Amino acid sequence: MPDSTVIGLHHEDEHHPELLHHFADAQQQRDSASLGMWVFLATEVMFFGGLFCAYLVYRHWYFPDFAAASKSIDATLGATNTAVLICSSLTVVLAVWAAQTARRTLLIVSLILTMLLGMAFLGIKGIEYREKFVEHHVPGASFSFDKVQVPGHPDQYANPHHAQIFFSLYFVMTGLHALHMIIGLGIFLWLLIMAWKGRFTPEWHTPVEIGGLYWHFVDIVWIYLFPLLYLIDRHP
Amino acid sequence: MPNPIPQPAMPQPAIAPPVERENYLNAKYGVWSWLLTTDHKRIALLYLLSITFFFFIGGFFALLIRLELLTPAGDLVQADTYNKLFTMHGMVMVFFFLIPSIPAVLGNFLVPMMIGAKDLAFPRINLLSWYLYIIGGVMMLHCMLTGGVDTGWTFYAPFSTNFTNTKIVEAGLAIFVAGFSSILTGLNFVVTIHRMRAPGMTWSRLPLFIWAHYATSIIQLLGTPVVAVTIVLVAAERALHLGIFDPKLGGDPLLFQHLFWFYSHPAVYIMILPSMGVVTEIIACFSRKRIFGYSFVAFSSIAIAVFGFLVWAHHMFVAGMSVYAALVFSLLSYAVAVPSAIKVFNWTATLYKGSIHYDAPMLYAFGFLGLFTIGGLTGLFLSALGINVHVTDTYFVVAHFHYIMVGGAVMGYLGGMHFWWPKISGKLYPEGWARLAALIVFIGFNLTFFPQFLLGYMGMPRRYYDYSHMPEFQILNVLSTAGATVLGVGYLLPMVYFLWSMRYGKPAPDNPWNAAGLEWKTPSPPPTFNFDEEPVVTWEAYNYDELDSPDKGAPHKEEVPVAR
Amino acid sequence: MLNNFPLWPVQASTIARSVDALYIFLLIVTGMMTLLIFICLVYFAARFRYRPGVPAVQIDGSHALEITWSTIPFLIFMVIFAWGALVYFKERTPPADATEVYVVAKQWMWKIEHAEGQREINQLHVPVGRDVKMIMTSQDVIHSFYIPAFRIKQDVLPGRYTVEWFRATKPGTYHLFCAEYCGTQHSGMVGDIVVMEPAQYETWMNGGSTGPLSATGEKIFAELGCSTCHRTDIQGRGPNLHGVFGKPVQLEDGRTVTADENYLRECILDPGAKRLKGFQPIMPTFQGLVTEEQVNALVAYIKSIAAAKGEAAKASASAAAPPAQENAQTNALANGSQVQ
Lengths: 236, 564, 340
Description:
The complex is a heterotrimer.
Chain A: H1 26-61, H2 63-71, H3 75-100, H4 104-134, E1 149-150, E2 153-157, H5 160-196, H6 206-230
Antiparallel strand pairs in A: 1-2
Chain B: H1 31-35, H2 40-68, H3 79-114, H4 123-145, H5 159-163, H6 168-195, H7 208-240, H8 253-286, H9 294-307, H10 323-351, H11 360-383, H12 385-391, H13 395-425, H14 431-458, H15 474-504, H16 544-548, H17 550-553
Helix pairs in contact in B: 2-3, 2-4, 2-15, 3-6, 3-7, 3-8, 3-13, 4-6, 6-7, 7-8, 7-9, 8-10, 8-11, 8-13, 9-10, 10-11, 11-13, 11-14, 13-14, 14-15
Chain C: H1 14-47, H2 63-92, E1 99-106, E2 109-114, E3 119-121, E4 123-127, E5 131-138, E6 143-147, E7 152-156, E8 162-167, E9 172-178, E10 191-196, H3 198-206, H4 213-223, H5 226-229, E11 248-250, E12 256-258, H6 261-269, H7 292-308, H8 314-317
Parallel strand pairs in C: 1-5, 4-10
Antiparallel strand pairs in C: 1-2, 2-3, 5-8, 6-7, 6-9, 9-10, 11-12
Helix pairs in contact in C: 1-2, 4-7, 6-7
């Protein structure tokens, strides 16, 4: 991960122990790390962008089938997960603030809370996946989506092929998102260890900042995924 | 050298000092000092070794392809073997040679030095890039040795997803991993160029090589993820028959082409832009001049990077797109031709009233200019919708992109290797052999690929291993194969004399060409952290007037980090 | 030119002339550009070669020059673009009264059915001077129907129709290539285009013809039971298909689309996707039950009842086609051959 470079074992020198010696000063090192993360996130936008593009094309073509397939997913679980992630963003902000203001306990608590919320997200996601598995909505040989009505058209059944495309995109997009969450958990575990050892100071806490950036980005992706996948044509 | 470049104000340190000074090559010894290095120069050499390896593998495939086409009948290899040969040739050359070639070798070596930095911003990510490249490369090799792929490097669905029974997933994964290597290199360059410039190194003082790499990095960063996710979809489709690209299940094969070319068209600019940067440096140095229209050359690189993202569907004019979409993409393709034309005109104008030397790098640069001009202008034929319908998917396209990617990119790469070899190795290569090689490459290249333009307009389709149905195409094919042999010799020569020079070459002075640029103001080979003293830049780029004038050259001497 | 060493392809269609004219224009324009650049390069390289004591003259650049050499090439490019686009429009717009040929591509052969009745494999016989329109689809992967002598090429995709057309100008036998890589025997997917004098062609067509494709289609229409719902006398449970082809039709979801070949094809294979307004979703899918050839025959049949009884059937078809838009859009396919 890009942020792993920022920290490094370094021979003791007169400057700050975390300053790598190819940088002129701490400011340059911090700016580089944060620009690096922003640039990395730009590539992530393109990564998900390709999937969003495929999603939008098929949603436009096969709207009724996508609506029917979307309705089969439990939106309550999705909404809960949205809330969980928004809360985790709050705890991330708290962690960054705690690092800036040298509140070690708060930092550790916030990091732990963030990780717990992240794991809660993955757990709920797991329940959702399990439901899909039981209902045979996982694309592949056992996929089945027979005689499912299109919302608003009680006389029309969704085309299973088109629904399968929806579920393919659903699993690829949420799956890659979940993979990003797992990587995020790894980063936060490492931040937690560092925080435990008391390595972060108000002068040097770049990893917390750019780890937080990453976490926020993963949250934002979800903010787009949730309405696109769960709320296509739902009415109260 | 018949035309020695004047070196008035640069007293060189004594050649071949009795005790070798410490440099990045001799700072540490042992395999691990290389495999675990974070020094951008050592990583550049690791890349040099690995891409040369893949270049010769890809070249070997090309040779077999040309030999098969010597006769109309499919007699040398089986149809399946031939299909795998051109597929692996394309994949190896594009993903494992051309894309990393200049950025990962010369860019890695030079970007930090040219802007006065001690290293790239993220040295360990740089090493990670190389490992990713190697992992991808090993996977690709394994894939080749255990059967290979026969889809063409373009992976068109639904052939790749539902029909072929070759190792699509493994090859796709190899490219996926190598793609991340490319992304991380781009990321490193962007951050380094933004954040690591030496005091005084403003954007308008950057060498145009840096501008070209900046533009290249933008493409790598924004394009590669899209092809990565496309490969994920192809693999998933193959494993589970999702139907995303399969028309039988409601999917759209054209969507694959859109996603694929969204990256793979800009990827052409990943290959050619760095080469343009190299050629700019060489032309300035060997005509002893500031580049004509510096800012136009700089911004045309950025313009190419931006416009390059808007023209992908010109690969699909006969694919079944709507006529109106085709119009838009044709128009935009002409728009992207303008910045390339600007570059060619500015290079030509730079020669005007110069003091031109004909050392080997300059010969390669001239070769680049000629071949790139032909390659670029034949692009105008392909962008013209009416003609595109006839010549797309024929040898006309093959000739066109080889003129750009081999005539342009590889010429630039070889020119750059010759130009900076003294800096990289600290040794001089034999000038006479180098000029001979440049000439052989130029002649061999034209002999190989010019006949293919004629073949293409005559209608010979690409990817045919057997043309016994149309034996009238044989003479041109024989010419092309003959040219390929010459070209092969031309490519082997530099490898031989570069290796020779490492042991027997004369020690290189710090600045053998009396060239401008920070990389020449440090010893050859440079020390581990590039400069003995942190450089402060007080001069404009390409200050050849000051370098060539004994009076004006002097004032800077105090500020310049002269090698000691 | 040497007999066995041609450097220019045979020119045997009306489009080939237009393409060659543009090609020659481009050769001249780019040739002049190349010459200009090469002369400058060689002249500068010789004139300004290194001479001891003659320093280089530093020139920063010139905005006037930069603007000139951006604008002039751009204007030239725009001329090429416009010319190329005109030729392309011609290539992509089949005349309304063209003779129709259905092409089914598969690994690794071309199966060709003339609407008039003949079937061939890897061969296409056509008369000189008549417009021929090919309606093409693939059974498996993407192929491309390429006739160099006519300068035309069009990818052939699975799951939809694409169209290309030509008018041959010279009798003879010409190459037919598959130009999109399609697997092992890609280079064996070649054939011949035989262009004949009209009289010869009539003789050929009448020998061994199985009757027009639409008649085959009518038979399949009855065999599959289509006619139970799609009645020809009255409005049955499905729409009456008389006069539907080429007309705009209103869909259940409010959209209006033109009932072109691709629309008919989709209705047979995926009836639910674009259901006509006012009809129940009762039609079963025929995906996997009919071959590509049978779909072609059905489409040819539905087209034939639109053309022959178009006027008489107008009244009964009005349920399907809103009366406001009556003008036939026979060129609809030319404006985009996608299903959507």
